[in-house]
Amino acid sequence: MPSLHARTLKLIVSGLLTLLVGASFYASVTRIYDDGSKVHDDAPVPPQALNNETVLPWRIRSPPLAQVTPEQHLKSAKKKNTETKDNLKDAASSVEHEPKGKVKKISPKTKKPLNILLLYGDDWRHDSIGSASGGLVKTPFFDNLAMQGMRFTHNCVTTSVCWISRATLYTGQYVSRHKSTDPSKPDFYKGWNQTFPYLLRQAGYYFGHVGKWHFKDYAEFIKPQLDWERPYYGRHWWEERGGLIHTTKKNERDAIAFLRERPKDKPFCLTVCFFTPHAQDSSPEQYLPQNESMKLYINDTIPLAPSATNQAWEKMPKFFGEINAGRTRFFKRFDTQEKYQKMMKNYYRLISEIDYSSEQIVKEVESQGALDDTLVIFTTDNGYFHAEHGLAEKFYPHQESIRVPLIVRDPRMAADKVGKLSDDFTLNIDLAPTILGAAGIQTPDVMNGQDISLIYTKGVTGNSWRKEFFYEHPVHLKESVIPASEALVRKDFKYILWPNYDTEQLFDLKNDAYELNDLVHNKDYNGVLQKMRMKFQELKKLAK
């Protein structure tokens, strides 16, 4: 992947002014993730940057866990991945298969309120787990969790960015309804009494939160609303008690502390919001794994998608310039083959670390005899471009950006659904109603989503479930940085509107899974276009 192309040359010759704009944006775009905090600028250097033999302090100070090393945990995932070295199943076009292996049936069909454990990743698209990547990504625990529950292959977000997805998680609402378009303006706090954390506490749940929150006024407003909390994010390594601890290990330790300290006579809800594999934007390394993970992926070659080319970038709408947020991050991470391999391997190492830590958290629930009374959900806040279309990050309505993993292990699941896949469209607006349903609490009318358990307990699927959905993302910072985007998404076609530029696109997903051939001006598709426009307007109104 060459580091310069035609558009770059145009920008260079356009003069110093454009370069200055780009430089000023580079400073401001970090605030998208860091909320303006300067703490990340002097973040500690991780041990592997100094000495790969360094003994990490958390190995001594962590609470006792099951005696399983990361190497043992990943033993089942060490077989060579000959298929995917040449042909990784891309986020846009992966063909899903039922998981193979022994399926563990969940014993009780409990009718009492379930405990809730939410494992929530960051910047992690749907095919970055083992069972959706042809085995390239090493996540044996999540793969096993799917065999004990159900994996949803067409789970999507309604807005692909960290903070809005989190507001949508708690409210079950589209951003056009909860209106929290900026981390500094958490408008969803105004309707807090209709969020799932509030409603669970009102019903007698003991509620805990670990990790990333992202919105301001946490201490003033959110802290008093929780029973137990350990909020932090923004860096991969933390100074603690004279040493360093990785943020994922810190998440694991704190989650287990909550589980051990909780009152045993109340149902609990714990949200574990991992910061990784989100990049540490202040570091040139971007992705900073733990020492033990550096052995993973070392002999793998991470394949590039067919759309990770300059030609694909040139096909993007012309208002996508070099100061676009996805493009600036592309040059930080993916603009050469060597950089791409290094970044992607470290990115996948962070994912494998979360897989391991999630297993330790679930094992703690199991050791307390509570697992078969607990709804376990694993999902993430948004997808992620891995150089497709010449981009990094998320934001936009492309498949790589909007599709995220979802695995649900539920004691109420029908026996014939355990270990199966669902290709129904599930959305992040559905998580709050699903969690409330597991607690026996009625979904408030203000929520846009539906209870996903209807799919695996009542057999609601296909024509009885949604067949399309509306996507939206507001402009952020300015139009040239992150332009607004909206879309109607189906499994066969996708209609995209870029409202700042009055530009439409139409893609045939069945024949163009990588979204490279815009059909909006093709007269043969006029009928499809008109129908998509009408449905788009209908669903947009319902989202508000």
Report the C-alpha radius of gyration, rounded: 22 Å
Mean pLDDT: 85
Figure out the total of helices: 19
Overall structural class, as computed from helix and strand content, comes to alpha/beta
Task: Describe this entry's structure for a reader.
The two termini are 42 Å apart. It is built from 19 helices and 16 strands. The chain is globular. With 544 residues, the protein is α/β, with parallel strands linked by helices. The model is unreliable at 1-73 and 76-108 (pLDDT under 50). α12 (247-261) packs parallel to α15 (337-367). It has an eight-stranded mixed beta sheet, sandwiched between helices.
Write the SSE topology:
Blueprint: H1 6-13, H2 16-29, H3 31-34, H4 58-61, H5 70-73, H6 82-86, E1 115-121, H7 140-148, E2 150-156, H8 162-171, H9 175-178, H10 196-202, E3 206-211, H11 218-222, E4 228-231, E5 237-240, E6 243-246, H12 247-261, E7 268-273, H13 310-314, H14 325-333, H15 337-367, E8 374-380, E9 385-386, E10 392-393, H16 399-402, E11 406-409, E12 420-427, H17 431-438, H18 453-457, E13 469-473, E14 485-489, E15 493-498, E16 503-508, H19 526-543
Parallel strand pairs: 1-7, 1-8, 2-12, 3-4, 3-7
Antiparallel strand pairs: 2-11, 5-6, 8-11, 9-10, 13-14, 14-15, 15-16
